[in-house]
Amino acid sequence: MKHVRKSVLLWYTPREMYELVTGIDAYPHFLPWCDKAQIIESHEDGVTARLGLHYMGIRHAFTTRNTHQPGESVEVRLVDGPFSMLDGTWFFKSIGRPGSEQQACRIEFDLRYAFSSLTLEAVVSPVFDRVANTFVDCFVRRAEDVYGPR
Q1: Most buried one in 14, 29, 73, 104, CB count within 10 A?
Q2: Average confidence score pLDDT of the chain
């Protein structure tokens, strides 16, 4: 099993970062490895989404069930794909005084995953390892593009 844990402090609000993470339809526009993103079903507490992975000649898709706590967190759980396990959590924690103009947040991203076969592990793991380790950086750049540098 692989484990990626990232934490970053940003001059964006938790709500702004939450909106980027839950804006799945926009993923192909800023995640270099994502060629397709589709919300399959909306639920009272989140969505089921399917993402297409296309990076360095490797192509796979996977489906997750995402549970949302608006402005606070997103939990990601595997439905299907080349993994035997995929569990992730985004936390968005406010830093600073509420109502202050200088709102900031700490993003915490935690992802655990394993592949369903040794062949997939050998072929897809190097690509997905790179994807997982640059995931947060992509959202930081997206925040700058959408909300402007701060």
Answers
A1: 14
A2: 92
